[in-house]
Amino acid sequence: MKPASVCEAPRADAPGQARSNAEALTGRVLHALERVTWPAHPATLIESATNRGAAHDVIEALRHLPDEAFGSFSEVSALIVAAQLRARESAAQRGVSTQG
What we know:
single chain; mainly alpha; 4 helices; elongated
């Protein structure tokens, strides 16, 4: 099974599963960004995550962030969770699962 990225919706087999999956992703992102000095732009975040050996889904989530300075991890986390939930809702409306 391939990991979900910020542009892919996690499968929600039970209520709250999409949020749980998004929060799990942000936990992995947090680990990858432990050494970041804030504020930071997405390019800095991607470089830091890559240097720490972050998984593909973490890098993809960071690649989809807007090109602006983020003051803290909580700003990054909020955007990642929101994007994951929007993608899941969109897929559900289309009747599509984006995860195989």
